[in-house]
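Task card 7
Instruction: Convert sequence to structure tokens.
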Amino acid sequence: MSTSWGRSADGGVWELAIRQPTVALRGQVLEYRGYRMDLRHPRRRLEVPAPVVTMVLGFDGPIRLTDAVTPELRSSYTSLVAGMRRAGTIGEHDGRLHGIAVSMTPRTAFGVFGPALGDLTNQWVHLPDALGERVTDRLLDQLFEAPSWDARARVLDAFLLGRLADSRPWAPAVDWAWQELNRSTGQVAVQELADTAGWSRRRLETMFREQVGLPPKGCARILRLQRALREYRDNQDRDGARIALRCGYFDQAHLVREFRATLGCSPSQFFAHRKTQTGAEPADRLTGEVTTAILPNADRVLTE
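Output:
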């Protein structure tokens, strides 16, 4: 549990409050991340695909989201839910933003959103479209009126526990296959998963789309990419060839192609953006993971 404040390089101010969920939700909800930003200039962030589903509850300021590889896919949101995505996301705002983000496992997201999770494949969705207008408005009102970040965490605890109480669980084979994908950081063959689960490959893929949000191969690509990002971060020499082999890519060229196909840039370009980040302004959206690069400032946030 932490709360930090700071001043950005351009003289603006920010606040970040990270809270852990109640014990009953540990391992299901990764963290609650409250934020309040009052910056002097717009911000642009390149967000890496991660094996989580994110629910954003906004109090002030819209976020503009653009697919990092297919820029014609874009829209603006105040509150949204983002399922697992194959491509990165460029997030933009005008410098003023206030809200709280909930990062949860796909298994938990299936309990919270039900079969609607399958509709979030590679998507961002307005939160009322996923939860319903009345439920969303009530939750936003409770969060906005709560007197502190700790109180907001308790509101979210109660909401999520209520949604999960009567939810339908993952199919046991989906649960097992997801754990195997995580254990191997995406380096187990999909056919091997299907054979061990006693399902056809096609049935496994269908069930993953419905209950996880992406087919197993798409999940494996995200997990391999996340491991590669950690390897780049933790190894000073950043030997791309060795990292590629450790992370399940054929060679360095394969790794670079995957980066470009997912993020629209090479590993060196991504980490160059991270290196040039100035000030103490928070970047990564998940504690301990490499998820974000703050891009050079745009003159303005794009509008519809």
